[in-house]
Design a protein that fits this description.
Layout (H helix, E strand, L loop, with lengths): L3 E6 L4 H10 L5 E8 L8 H5 L19 E2 L4 H7 L2 E4 L5 H13 L4 E3 L25 H8 L6 E3 L5 H15 L1 E10 L25 H12 L2 E3 L2 E3 L5 E8 L6 E9 L5 H10 L3 H4 L10 E4 L7 H4 L8 E8 L5 E7 L3 H17 L5
Parallel strand pairs: 1-2, 1-4, 2-3, 4-5, 5-6, 7-10, 12-13
Antiparallel strand pairs: 7-11, 8-9, 11-14, 13-14
Helix pairs in contact: 1-11
Bound molecules: NADP nicotinamide-adenine-dinucleotide phosphate (NAP).
Length: 360
């Protein structure tokens, strides 16, 4: 595989920091540009991040002296330096939409963590093991944007990346009728640490703005189909979600209740989870976990603290599968929200796009 030059837009943020670590020694991607707000622009990366550095590993040596650019003022300059950019910024939704389209129209593909374009009908929202075929919508998007290379591709919200992977291998064979899910989400999902969110210590906050809607609606786009120039979301199953913020640094947990159209046996579910492989595993993409779904037999697993880093934070852990007296089954799921759920998921999507020639 040839090496691609990449930029990180929002490099100083929680997700941007994860990108910098994941990409500092990536076999295919070489970071040549870092960008953030005008507050950071013109500073060395190490200086711009300063005390906001929230990772347990230090700032990568090969990136700490790069001068941070201005994500908005330097679009054309950055587009001229890179083959594509990763984007994770904290801005207003309409500003993010406009910014990402500016990069795309400057012929610079954007792989985004932001939610702004998730429901743009010709923007693929992809979990590479679940709906890799949605990247085939990119030619239609390029036609709308009037670009040859430029496009926007997004990853889905972090909360659903714990439970949708577990439901996906059961969907076609058994039919999913409805799902109830309660999520217990880590503070890094809000770009916070225990130092910057002291109110979460000894506490649970039963509200995360916009999260329940995303957790209910985004799975239906993932399970949708390309129809002409857009992706048509699936009409079912019905999801209902409650999302809580909990005092955990990293790792979103979900309690899932599911009713099937044709109830499987417990053994059939476990077999489907064990055997599930997607395109990333078949193509051996560099960031793909070998085993996507890890099932724990122990009653007290998965646990965020113990299990979030399985397969470098790219696998999903599942446990406590049992029958339910209202739904058919219930179980628990866990995924690392800034790895599989954010930067790692975006890197895997970029690897898929590179493998399929979309950055050439
Ligand atoms: N954290 C997660 O687990 C997670 C998961 C999935 C998706 N996301 C999404 O990823 C995005 C970033 O989240 P985060 O947690 O990394 O946020 P964050 O820690 O608050 O970082 C925000 C980044 O945006 C930059 N920024 C702010 N205003 C800007 C402006 N006007 N122009 C250019 N850059 C600007 C910041 O630069 P300065 O440092 O210069 O201010 C910083 O680099 C959000 O859309 C979020 O919803 C986050």
């Amino acid at each position: 595989m040839k090496k691609y030059n990449v930029g990180i837009i929002g490099a100083t943020g929680m997700v941007g920091q994860r990108f910098s670590l994941l990409l500092s020694h990536h076999p295919w991607f070489n970071v040549v540009a870092l960008a953030a707000s005008p507050r950071s622009a013109g500073k060395r990366y190490e200086e711009a991040v300063g005390a906001k550095w929230a990772m347990t590993s230090p700032i990568p040596e090969n990136l700490k002296d790069l001068i941070v650019m201005d994500a908005t003022a330097d679009v054309e300059k950055i587009a001229g330096m890179v083959d594509f950019v990763f984007c994770a910024v904290d801005m207003k939704k309409d500003e993010i939409k406009a910014l990402e389209e500016r990069y795309a129209k400057a012929e610079c593909p954007v792989v985004s963590n932001n939610s702004a374009h998730r429901f743009t009908p010709d923007v693929p929202m992809v979990v590479p093991e679940i709906n890799p075929e949605h990247i085939d919508i990119i030619p239609a998007q390029r036609k709308r944007l009037g670009t040859n290379r430029g496009f926007v591709a997004v990853k889905s919200n972090c909360s659903l990346q714990s439970y949708v992977p577990a439901l996906h291998p059961l969907k076609d064979e058994f039919g999913i009728d409805r799902v109830l899910v309660c999520t217990y989400q880590a503070i890094s999902g809000a770009g916070k640490t225990f130092d910057t969110m002291p109110e979460i210590v000894d506490n649970v906050i039963p509200y995360i703005g916009g999260e329940e809607e995303k957790s209910e609606q985004e799975p239906l786009k993932l399970w949708g189909k390309i129809e002409g120039d857009h992706i048509e979301s699936a009409k079912e199953p019905l999801f209902t979600a409650q999302c809580f913020r909990v005092p955990v640094s990293d790792g979103h947990t979900a309690a899932v209740f599911v009713k099937f159209k044709k109830k499987p046996t417990k053994e059939q579910i476990l077999e489907a989870w064990k055997n599930f492989k997607g395109v990333p595993q078949e193509c051996n993409l560099p960031s793909a976990p070998k085993q996507f779904l890890h099932y724990f037999e122990e009653d007290n697993r998965p646990q965020a603290k113990l299990d979030r880093m399985i397969e470098n934070g790219m696998a999903v852990s599942v446990g406590r599968l049992r029958e339910d007296n209202q739904y058919d089954y219930k179980f628990a799921c866990l995924s690392h929200n800034t790895l599989r759920g954010a930067a790692g998921g975006a890197v895997l999507l970029a690897e898929l796009l590179a493998e399929k020639g979309y950055f050439d």
